[in-house]
Amino acid sequence: MLDLTKLAQQMQGISQQLTLEATATRQRLDRANLLMAQAFDRQAELTEMQQLWRDRLSFTAAIPIEPLNTRIAIDPAPFAHTVIATDGSQIAPSHHEIAYCYLINVGRIILHYGQSKLPLLDSLPEVFYRPEDLYVSRQWGIRTEEWMGYQRTALEVQMLAELAQAIIDEMSASTISLVDGSLIYWFLEQLPTEARDRILAPILAAWDQLRAIEVPLVGYISASRSGEAMNFLRLQSCAYLAPDCATHCSEVVDRAPCQVLDPLKDAAIWGMLLEPGQRSPLWKSSARIQEFYGDHAIHFCYVNVGSEIARVEVPAWVAENSALLNSALSLVLAQVQKGYGYPVALAEAHNQAVVRGGDRARFFALLEQQMIKAGLRNVGTSYKEARKRGSIA
User: What is each CA distance from 58 to 124, 133, 177, 224, 300, in whole angstroms?
Assistant: First the structure.
């Protein structure tokens, strides 16, 4: 039980610290605004420098595709349009349950606007119980719980492409496919080649499918903590003629001289520069995992959706097609407005996917019934799990 009396004694210190941080943030924003203006004047030079010294940088800096002073008002969404979205949830495997297995539940949403068509709001569950599903990741030193999360990411994208393909004959209006979160799968960087390919290959195949039917793919990131764009300004604040971090700053323990904006994130400065309904310039991510993405290199921009500064990511084939990009951004903004601050299709996909405590109990009860019906004996949870579910104190 939380002791609020003891906790109240710490509140004064927290409020004082937050005041100090707010003052420091305002100073960093002023510095960032100055560096942005300076970097705009040297944009071509800094971009060439980033590409030339990329392998010697100790940080990941995105590349601006448009002028840094770009501020573009997003067009209103067309009256008739369609939004497809998926999101996933899971029941993790546990040795304390009646059977060692896991479940992935993907929420599926199709919303038609300005059309006489019924929406789709449902979820598709899948249980993984075979040894080849449960233990395949062990050969690479990956825990089953982690592998389940990777599988969920792939299933969300695959199902998105399947939904788009299923309604291709009905597409008479602008259509967008939405996922919650980044399209840059950083977790894949650390995986062995075979494990990475097991997850990434079906994802890229789904992206190819969406490209073939010209349905733009968008990753929507709320409350983004990325600093890729801010890192480009580190090239401007570098104290050396060449940004050779490996040579000049290899022995720096705390903070490099160019980290004058740290810990400021991208969303903070674009919150100062963008008006509601505007987007920032396009950037190309330099995340190394994209070396395996083929021609699907991820581009992004920041959008002032009114309630926050959202990071919106798209593959190269969307970014390079102005019609697809403009359509995607207008539908994203309309979704946020309809959802009162967050895309309504993603919120509904989450609601369809989420597995609550009662769902978990019913899942294992159903599993127990099937095991008993199959003639299995000694079916039940461990003593530890049983005691956690009830108390005698």
Answer: 42, 37, 34, 21, 21
